[in-house]
């Protein structure tokens, strides 16, 4: 069973895991600007080969990946140009409905925040797993994260373009995903997502932001 795939970035997607996912509107970050950012961190990560200790090298790479994401997200929040279709409540509701559609079947929807040009969410795919994940999974029907994202992004792009009376790409092709390793990391990520509108100075308290959600059993 495929648990790893690569587009512009590598994606490690273990069966039954919890994921932090960010997906954005197409052209929400200028291509040249994003290329500069990626090249900067590609070079920094490549230079970690000089770190002799393997564990130190791993920690350095994780730290650089986190810093890359922080800059990436800051660019989305600070964007002065590009599409902001998700500010439209009709479009935001289309996305909400699609996120909730597979809650309880393909994943457990833990939380999300819909910003003007991107979406953050945390989902657990453990709900698909009713067997020992260490067993041979050949032939087991399991929908991995990359396929889940197609089920979310595909229909929302079609419906949103109809509302906007436009054609062409709606979402950027690639999503950013991060594996949640433990409860502490989960709590930090959930807090980060819910407080994104506060950080962007849209509201003073995340509970006042209408396009955020957290499952009742995770509050």
Please provide a written account of the structure.
The chain has 2 domains: 4-28 and 84-218, Alpha-Beta Plaits (2-Layer Sandwich), CATH 3.30.70; 30-78. The chain has 219 residues and is α+β, with helices and mostly antiparallel strands. The protein has a 5-stranded antiparallel beta sheet, with helices on both faces. Helix 1 runs antiparallel to helix 2 (54-78) and helix 3 runs antiparallel to helix 4. It is 41% helix and 16% strand.
SSE order and pairing:
Elements lengths: L3 E3 L3 E3 L5 E7 L6 H16 L7 H25 L10 H13 L6 E7 L3 E7 L20 H20 L11 E4 L3 H12 L1 H4 L12 E3 L5
Helix pairs in contact: 1-2, 3-4
Give a quick precis of the structure.
The chain has two domains: 4-28 and 84-218, Alpha-Beta Plaits (2-Layer Sandwich); 30-78. It is built from six helices and seven strands. The chain has helices at residues 31-46, 54-78, 89-101, 145-164, 183-194, 196-199; strands at residues 4-6, 10-12, 18-24, 108-114, 118-124, 176-179, 212-214.
What are the main properties of this structure?
two-stranded antiparallel sheet; 219 residues; five-stranded antiparallel β-sheet
């Amino acid at each position: 069973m495929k648990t790893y795939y690569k587009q512009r970035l590598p994606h490690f997607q273990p069966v039954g895991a919890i994921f932090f996912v960010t997906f954005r509107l197409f052209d929400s970050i200028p291509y040249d600007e994003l290329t500069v950012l990626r090249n900067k961190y590609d070079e920094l990560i490549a230079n970690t080969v000089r770190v002799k200790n393997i564990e130190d090298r791993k920690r350095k790479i994780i730290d650089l990946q986190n810093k890359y994401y922080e800059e990436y997200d800051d660019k989305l929040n600070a964007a002065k140009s590009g599409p902001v279709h998700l500010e439209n409540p009709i479009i935001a509701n289309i996305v909400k409905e699609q996120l909730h559609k597979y809650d309880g079947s393909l994943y457990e929807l833990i939380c999300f925040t819909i910003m003007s040009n991107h979406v953050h969410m945390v989902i657990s795919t453990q709900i698909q797993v009713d067997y020992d994940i260490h067993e041979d999974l050949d032939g087991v029907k399991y929908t991995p994260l990359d396929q889940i994202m197609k089920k979310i992004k595909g229909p929302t792009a079609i419906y949103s373009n109809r509302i906007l009376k436009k054609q062409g790409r709606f979402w950027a092709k690639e999503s950013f995903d991060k594996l949640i390793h433990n409860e502490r990391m989960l709590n930090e990520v959930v807090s980060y997502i819910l407080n994104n509108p506060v950080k962007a100075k849209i509201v003073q308290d995340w509970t006042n932001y209408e396009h955020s959600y957290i499952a009742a059993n995770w509050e």
